[in-house]
Please model this.
Amino acid sequence: MIQLTNLHKAFGSQNVLNGLSLTVPDGQITAIIGPSGEGKSVLLKHIIGLMQPDSGQIEIDGESIIGIRRSEMNRIREKFGMLFQNAALFDSMNVFENVAFPLQEKTSLSRDEIRTRVLSALEDVGLKNVEQKFTDELSGGMKKRVGLARALLLNPKIILFDEPTTGLDPIIKRAIHQLISETHAKFGFTAVVVSHEIPDIFDIAQNVAMLFRGEILQFGTADEIMNSTHPVVKQFISGSLDGPIQMV
Amino acid sequence: MISAAIRLIGHVTIVSVRELGRIGWFLIYSLYMIVRRPGSPLQILKQIRFIGAKSLFVIFLTAAFTGMVLGLQGFYTLTKFGSEGMLGSAVALSLIRELGPVLTALMVTGRAGSAITAEIGIMRITEQIDALETMALDPFKYLVTPKFIAAMLSLPLLCAIFDVVGIYGGWVVGVKLLGVNPGAYFYEMEKAVVWRDVYSGIVKSFSFGLIIAWIGCYKGYYAGHGAEGVSRATTESVVLTSVLILVWDYFLTSILL
Model:
């Protein structure tokens, strides 16, 4: 279980996280929604220890990750996979090498076993015959799929998705959402998905948290958030220009 | 007004001390990682190819013309004292003790140091370094230590090539064009150059290799946002490395002299 308690984070004079608390239930998909620039990606980076909060507590399965040694953090990170906003594939490697990389570095599997597992992971995300392509030869949707295959390969307990469908066309978006939903059903990981895709994200998430001004304004099931009467949540979901969320 | 000035001085001091701490920590951690997890031999070889082998052409060119200029200038000066026979030793000592290590390092800084910063900087801004960390892999093992090892191995070798090519550059001008006795050119050189001179050149270029990798990797690792951040980091890397090489050269020369 991921437990965030009273997190504060500021960049200079700008408070990004302002006393944020959130509990992410195990084995479910939790979506984090909220206006752009509210710190959703920053929140994900805190969860996986890429950033440290100014104050507050982050616990992964009951273990605090604040101020721990790098080796301890790496042990906890073994539980994670992450799909970055732009997939963060290694541009000096082809697709096969990208997906195989964590296996080569972290396991003692033979070449043949690695090959079998990489091809199977690529097939799981609907990719065939792309192993030799380099990342600049892939479309945005294909990059996300390769990133997902890489994230899934070590069977992580928790996967963080940072805007997995940003910049994709509606059909690819739907396909990626379906892929997240199917792989979740197959592997049973805990998923935290930062997304702007309203209302599509409600179709795959069991829980939704609304982040606003550095705090979780509302947390509930997808249905509860969809039917929320809170003016901020309501305005965000409807996409209305009138309401408490002001365009800067 | 006064309080604003004090605040500014305080801010600049804090930022500078923090930067110094970070750059110092980067070096210590890199050296620790070289001992503990130096990276795969293949990665180190790739970097030696990039930093060393691919710099050969520019080193040949620079060395040849540096040696030729030394031949010209040395002949002009030595003729005034009737000692043009000493040209070989003058060219060799200048190259082996000073110009070889420094010019090799400056050339490699321009060619490879800037590329190291740009490569790591782009990996930083495209979250590839974050991706390594999320896989519980230490980015230093893959990105930093192979470059340190490669630079520290390549620079002394490149410097040795620079010295030899430079000496022959001086020979072409001094002996073939200006008529210095070929026997005297090499005989005086053999007499004047001692192991200590060669040793000082090796120590210098080894430490310059460390500086190139250190600053190149550091500036890339902490590159700012976007293309502008990488561009700024690359410029800063080349300028800082070049200055550090010249400053460190002075101190090292005063120790090794």
Chain A has nine helices and ten strands. Chain A has two domains: 1-79+156-248, 89-155.
